[in-house]
Design a protein that fits this description.
With 452 residues, the protein is α/β, with parallel strands linked by helices. It has 9 helices and 22 strands. The protein starts with 6 loop residues before the first strand and ends with a strand.
Length: 452
Amino acid sequence: MVKKSQEYIVKIDTLNHQAQGIARIDGFVVFVDNVLIDEVAKIKIEEVKKEYAKANLVEILEKNPYRKEPECPYYYLCGGCHLMHAKYQHQLKLKKLLVEDAFRRIGKLSPRINDVIGMENPFRYRNKTALPVGGDYKKPQIGFYRKMTHDIVDIDYCLIQHEFCDDVIKGMKDLIQKHKIEVYDEKKHKGVLRHIVVRNSFAFDEMMIILVCTKVPENLETIKKDILNNFSKIKSLYLNLNPKRTNVILGDEDILIWGSSTIKDRIGNLTFEISPKSFFQVNSMQTEVLYSQVVKYLRNIDAEIVFDVYSGIGTISMFIAPFCKKVYTIEIVEDAVEDAKKSSKNNGISNIEFICGRAEIEIPKLLKNGIIPQAVILDPPRSGCEKELLESLIEHKIPNIIYVSCNPSTLARDSSILFSNGYEILEVQPVDMFPQTFHVECVVLMTNVKNK
């Protein structure tokens, strides 16, 4: 019987979907962070459940040859990255294994999965971050949460964020002290400043700062002046009000304090307007790689009419528009649809029709009006597609589906449903949008063979 606080020597068999090592002690499964496959490690049991245990790494006794020292001094404390102890080319191989495992274990499928497309420089790629604020105004903490907790790891910089983010971390600590800004205490639900959200543009060197507060700070005007003096690249400064006792970062109300209501960024030769709540891929450089794969699949199936579902601010739609006769975007968030319309006009794109509504309702309407797509693009949130949407696609015998997903588990689940209803998975192309983490994006091409 595995006992809490007991030390054991184990061999790591494989990794799970969160890049945790899986070892077995007399057949009992134990999860261990910061290890690699085939390593022998001394571990200490931290928690014992009915079917598994969690352990902390004490010492690596036999190293995997692809192990390296993490570049970040906060790596073993912070929960933001998970694979920085592995050489980058090995990270890509591990991510392919994670995708294969999800399809095999969850989807009961074994499709063709290509090698993961990586980055030349797998650091400093993120264009957005949400920084929790803790401590008090005398000694503020700004950083990221320790893994599986809401304890803040105080940092001075982050190697996967844009360099502008480092300036904000250091500068805002000084401003909190100077202006005695009351820091939010999550447990007591007291205080003012909860999070600092930073959005950066790699293409235009622009920055948006969003102060997430429970209420308007009393000295907001003087805080604003110091922020403008401290951060030369700032183009947009917002106050977001979130008075609720919740883990959701942003509240409902955005107040523009200074500057432009949006910042701009670019994918390929397209420019997009980004507002505080706009969904925009966090890795601008790899997004072009990702969307180029979507274009490749569309051209392979010669798609003239395309539906883009969960279209957000229309990034995919505008990227594929030159290669299609007509694109119909379907998005439920009204603000995102308005942002998409503005960006489409600014980019001189005229062959997109923007629809605000639920896909399972809007798709039948389009089909009833005789608008038949050669392909539907799905780019859902991590939770995957709504069951009703998949049923609608199956019912109306959509010939081709291109599924873009940031979660292999829900991708495999939804792919299995489509496979069981006549769709063949032609290819899975993983793209590394999130180096140093276990996250991986995939583009999947499926075709309806049952109704051909």
